[in-house]
Design brief:
262 residues, alpha+beta, 2 domains, 5 helices, 5 strands, 57% helix, rod-shaped, disordered N terminus
Length: 262
């Protein structure tokens, strides 16, 4: 009955084809996510980096205003003392180094250069090449001898100057002794030749007046040559004494250097 009524209603009212559509959701735009801006963190400057910057600026600025003059006696030693003082003035520990930047295995007699080491953090040191105006991590600059202050360094320079002077002096004396010894051999041989000649010609013989006079002349030559031998021998003995005295002082210098450098 209900079905029949429904059909009848459709006939009377006109049938409408009604389709049920799936509802469309209202689209909303997806909001763009704007990241929250955060302030860039300030880089943390460690004490070491700060000190590296300070000492690097010092050695670079120093180089711009000073000239290395080897032959005018403004040498690496003077420059190292200057930069040491500038680093210490900034409250940074510094030491003056001596060594051989070209040969870290050189012994102390071959040391020929000076520079500065700055303690940029506890136990960490940075080498400053004062004659070149730069900081360096070259391992050659981290071997040698190191002085806490200019006083010790200057004493080292004084001792090295005296050491080198004694070495040069001893070498000169040894050369002179060698020449003197050669001279002594020559004059002594001549003296012996004269004595041999006298013994061969006149000793133990009855001499004529002419031979007797000739023997006296030869004796005079022998005595004169003996005096020459004595003079040369005395000079050789004096040289040996002087060399020995210089060697004693040289030993004292070396011992003082060893105490200073240990």
């Amino acid at each position: 009955m209900i079905v029949a009524l429904a059909i009848l209603a459709c006939v009377l009212c006109g049938c409408v084809d009604y389709k049920v559509e799936t509802p469309v959701s209202t689209l909303t735009s997806t909001p763009t996510l704007i990241p929250t801006l955060q302030s860039t963190p300030t880089p943390i400057i460690t004490e070491e980096k700060k000190n590296v910057g300070i000492v690097t600026d010092i050695v670079e600025d120093y180089y711009k205003t000073h000239t290395y003059r080897k032959y005018d006696l403004f040498v690496c030693a003077d420059m190292a003392i200057d930069v040491w003082d500038m680093v210490e003035t900034q409250g940074i520990n510094a030491e003056i180094a001596v060594g051989n930047a070209d040969n870290p295995n050189a012994n102390w007699t071959e040391y020929n250069h000076a520079w500065v080491l700055a303690e940029v953090s506890p136990g960490k040191w940075l080498a400053l090449e004062t004659t070149g105006g730069y900081a360096t991590y070259d391992k050659n600059y981290y071997s040698g001898y190191f002085f806490r202050n200019p006083r010790e360094f200057k004493r080292y320079l004084e001792l090295m100057k005296e050491y080198n002077a004694h070495i040069d002096g001893i070498n000169d004396l040894q050369m002179e002794y060698s020449d003197t010894y050669d001279e002594w051999v020559r004059v002594a041989n001549y003296y012996e030749d004269l004595v041999s000649e006298y013994n061969r010609r006149y000793a133990g013989r009855s001499l004529s007046p002419e031979e007797y006079q000739a023997s006296l002349d030869l004796q005079s030559k022998i005595y004169a040559q003996y005096a020459v031998v004595e003079r040369v021998s005395g000079r050789a003995d004096q040289l040996v004494y002087t060399i020995n005295e210089k060697n004693k002082r040289l030993t004292e210098i070396i011992n003082e250097l060893n105490e200073l450098l240990t």
